[in-house]
């Protein structure tokens, strides 16, 4: 387990860049503290704030759902400057998301992209309901649902019909789609500068569990 001191050193402005596996270890350990009720709330004081006034060196970019119950800094027990966060309902990809992720890997040189979904996701539920009923929701909610429907179809082909199973499939599909949609992200992964890990979060017990790995991230190091 990585302690708070290691987290602070790893994410300081003068810290050495982490490997994808080391970055995930820090997040995994923070999640374990959160689950166990022993969160240390690192890097949230005035000194940390001052040190980040002119630069940032996050250990990961977290592309997660907008759900209010999925606050990345809390569930991974990190603080200011530790993670670069991008959020849309259902982790739907658009140009702004891709631009943000490309900035994170090419400019900030972040070693890990986390695609973070969660159980009982409202956006995925809406997509499943639309698939079953054949009726689409109104307004721009329709745009969200249309982008999630391919994951619903993929899940159904695998015999998965429940929402939480579809959430996991959506995370897997989005992780792969980042490679297909962004030449910049694909290049960073192929060169070993970053890796992608798809994760599902349990609203009930707070655990974050990997469901997909793309790139140089050792599966033995994420157990």
Automatic annotation (TrEMBL):
PROSITE patterns: PROK_CO2_ANHYDRASE_1
Keywords annotated in UniProt: Lyase, Zinc
EC number(s) stated in the UniProt entry for this protein: 4.2.1.1
Catalyzed reaction equations: hydrogencarbonate + H(+) = CO2 + H2O
InterPro entries with a match to the protein in the record: Carbonic_anhydrase, Carbonic_anhydrase_CS, Carbonic_anhydrase_sf
One Pfam short name: Pro_CA
Coiled coil feature spans: none
Function: Catalyzes the reversible hydration of carbon dioxide to form bicarbonate.
Family from the record: Belongs to the beta-class carbonic anhydrase family.
PANTHER family given in the database record: CARBONIC ANHYDRASE, CARBONIC ANHYDRASE 2
Protein name: carbonic anhydrase
Organism of origin: Citricoccus nitrophenolicus
């Amino acid at each position: 387990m990585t302690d708070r001191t290691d987290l602070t050193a790893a994410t300081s402005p003068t810290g050495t860049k982490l490997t994808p596996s080391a970055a995930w270890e820090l997040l995994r350990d923070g999640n374990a503290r959160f689950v166990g009720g022993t969160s240390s709330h690192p890097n949230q004081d005035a000194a940390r704030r001052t040190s980040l006034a002119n630069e940032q060196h996050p250990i990961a970019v977290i592309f997660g759902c907008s759900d209010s119950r999925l606050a990345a800094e809390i569930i991974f027990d990190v603080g200011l400057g530790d993670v670069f966060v991008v959020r849309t309902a259902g982790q739907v990809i658009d140009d702004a998301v891709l631009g943000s992720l490309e900035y994170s890997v090419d400019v900030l040189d972040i070693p890990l992209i986390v695609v973070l979904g969660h159980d009982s996701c409202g956006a995925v539920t809406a997509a499943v309901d639309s698939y079953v009923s054949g009726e689409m929701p109104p307004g721009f909610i329709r745009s969200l649902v249309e982008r999630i429907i391919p994951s619903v179809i993929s899940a159904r082909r695998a015999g998965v019909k429940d929402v939480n199973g579809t959430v996991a499939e959506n995370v897997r599909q989005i992780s792969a789609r980042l490679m297909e949609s962004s030449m910049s992200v694909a290049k960073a992964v192929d060169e070993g500068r970053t890796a992608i890990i798809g994760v599902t979060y349990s609203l009930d017990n707070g655990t974050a569990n990997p469901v997909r790995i793309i790139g140089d991230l050792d599966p033995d190091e994420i157990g």
